[in-house]
Amino acid sequence: MAENQSDSDKEDVGSSTVTPLSPGKRQRKTKSTAYIDDLIAENQRLRQDDAKPRPEPSIPDVSSTETSSLQGTLLEERPWFFDMNVLHTPVLIGEASDAAFATRFRQAISEPGHSHIPRVNYAPDERLLALSDQDCPWPIPSRARLLVNVALKYVSRTYYIVRKSQILEGLEQTIVNPHSADSLLRSKLWVLFAIGEMYSTRTAAKDRNFPGMAYFARATRILRIISERPRIDAIEIRLLLSFYSLALNRRYTAYALAGSSVRLSVVMGLHLNVPESQLRDAGAREHRNRVWWTAYSFDRMWASRLGHPVAIQDDDIEVDLPTDPVLDTPSDDFADSSYFIAGLRLARLAAKVINAIYTRRPQQKTLSQRVQEALRDLRAFVEELPPHLHIEPTDAPEPSPKPLSLHLYFNQVAITATRPILLHVLRTHVSAWDTQPRTEPQIPVSAMTLSEACIRCARHSCRLLIDCWIDGSFATFDYFYTQYLFSSATVLAISSLIDGKECRSDKEQFESAAQFLHQLKENGNFAAEEFCRHVDAMKVCCPSEQSQDLPSIPPTNQLPKALKQLTENDSRTALLVHPVCHCELFVQLDCQLVHSVLAVLFSWQLPTEQDCESQWKSQKTTVVPTGNGIVPYHCQMLFLSSIQINSSFLLLIQFSSFLLTNLTTSRPWSSHQLITLHKDYQPLLIPQTKPHTIIPFTTDNMSSLSTAYPTDGEVIDIGGSSINLTFVDDQLPKAFLSKGDFPKEIAYTSGMEKWNCIADKSYQTSDEMAIIKATAQQVVQQLPSGTHIIDLGAANSKKFEPYVHEFIAQGKECVYVALDLSHASLVEHIAKAKVTFPGVKCIGLYGSFEQGDIYFKQTRPTARLFLSLGSIFYNAPDAMAKDRCIEFKGHMTPVDRLIVGQDGPTGDEASQTHAAYNTVEYDAFFTTYLQGLQDHAGIVGANPKTAWIVESKLNKAMHYFDVTATHDMYCTNFGIKVAAGTTFKMFKSWKRYEGEIHQLTNEVGLKIETLGKADNSGMRQYLIKAAEN
Description:
22 strands; three-stranded antiparallel sheet; eight-stranded mixed sheet; Stress_Response_Reg; 11% strand
């Protein structure tokens, strides 16, 4: 009874609250206990209130009348099975799961109660079985290294599964000798490839496999036989497969594989300490211990998410905790042990929460008492957490992923422990909604305190995840971040319905989280697709009066009409929603100030500039610059007429606002790019700027263009690996018989890395770059947003960069595509391009121009800017150069452009031409090229530096090199003798004058104009396009 409540019970109520590890936005005091200072103050207040004389309380006692209520609202008397219309196979629903809680939430506020939404969004068994039976090609060496390094980065930073040094060594051995690796090592590499591809991909094409799924299916072949004498490699493989299974939203698979890992570990005795006399290697001992504790953590983490039992009890475990071993050979295999210990302690607490709170067994303690006990355990965890695992203050650098993941997991455990109480509080509020007159719900202080702890953890997680999204560290297919986001969103949705002081803010955070989930869904995230179904159902069930004050959302097919209405009303607030990415634009119009500046992110199907001009032709207007990412609209400018708008800036004026969520499929806006938000609908997660803020467009905020390219920053083999070496079998023997020239294609097999060292240092390059910088703006102005820059024979050159910079400056999107026959050069080139332009999609195509053209027809780019730089396009005899123009004419569309650089030196510039090739870099290139030539011809024992004399030659028609043999040599592959003194020609470069190039190009029906000429050489650049009909 209420009047018999003991002091100890009252103190339990006060000390039961728990806060996130870092209250506020990434702020904490220097000591661990500072995280709960506010709760200590709250405890003291409650004790003081309890000590004061007071009348008989009207709030029921937690340990008496409240007990039966709380106990009965959590679990049904019978297990929850859901009928999926599969014969004799109802699906068990764990009450502790996020999806189950979302259903209970909807059932609490709907009448009649809504049924559960089954999980159907996951990679199906049939598809995985089919893939496992198919041959999966082993990635090329550079790709294999990239995928393994990405996988190790993301897996090893939060869990310990494999020894990094052994994996990298095994990978190199496998690359050198594929048959040297046993089935376990190869399977381990297969699944690492899968994880690496998943984390290096930003969006999954709907008509293709989920990133890494083919590798994953190939790795699962090892599971067909369970070894009778398992090795630790088998456990590592299962843990990796379990980890990846979550990304496929195959949670039962992940749970089963984790449990299997624990069972195999027990068979091997990993749960016990092996005598040092039997295993003296300190690294091997630590590896055993850490693999065990990872299996233990996975089992408990996955079990707690599903509400299922664990595979082993703590009483059966005797192995030591992870340590920081001193090894004979230095390595970074074993990261900070304190982090892994903290993680496994949380996993243990998560399992304890499930056993204590989500159980049907009779309990001596009430539900409230059990929740309080769980929170006291979490508080002890916080107090014992090492200082370096706390999130640093706001003005410190971004927190490392380890503490961040730990804090998010901590919040999730706290939410799981307290949300049954939150659900009880919600039901109490719902009951009060129907009373007339409406009465204040009677909720015990303890329940309010526990529910507030749940909400505070959800707010903190949501803030951390928003920050991760903004700084680009939220991986598209990361299951954990996606799950934490959904779990927090559900709690915030409940909080928005409870009349608290922050209910409106929680509503806005819920909407923001929902939009993030929808963006992840659009990008191919299986879990987000499932969670979005729950979120959409929540929105349907939420009482309508909660959102009456929000602007209405026009249907997507009425967006043009909605914009028209904006221009016809003197004062109005409207909300426009992008139909795919759900980006929202708020505009408030005021006839006394300004009609509006409408700048809409992405390519919406909205009225054209001409349509708007016809509506506003009578008004004094200015134009927001056009380009993908900005749809141009006229606006009346009164008091802002003194502010100049140029092509590289977007002007956000007073009373216009953006909700910056789910902006791109690749990278959101950087946190330093701030915006003005609507005063009545203002997410607290996004900082504000003052009115009249001008925001520069940079590569960080360019949205990722929607193309057929599945990934960004990689090299795609479009046929380059299958190109035969006809120049070896045909052209090279003819050259040694003086029936042709040495083929330049040998440089693609030998010497390309040397060529890349000099490509950007020659006078031709510097002169051509000067022309590009001077004319890039003129060129890009002719091209629409979404243009693909096709760099023909990229060769690691930076000549494309001014064009990309100009696309960005003009607010247009572009995709950079480097086409080349040297795979190694492409890999290096694309990597550098991504560093320079992280927000621009960069793709390497390994193959010929003909193969590239077939590929472009499949991807259907908006427009193409072809770059044929470095005196290549017209570098051929007259007939061949003309044939090239004719061939290219067949590829050009009216919106395409071709930039051609061509050197045409005069006699006065001949000395400069010869001097350009008389350098150390060119000498190294020639030596490597000639060595490749000797290898293809079978010339044995000749030193390419002394066997040949290379001379630069220039006549009226061309520049070329004479290559003279200094001694007799024999081509063993062709049966040809090369006599001393024989001279061959290589690298012919035809000289083309301006008039000659114009005439040749016009004759085939193409239009050409000269863009510019270099001041110090004969280098010119030309712009070519299809002739008008």
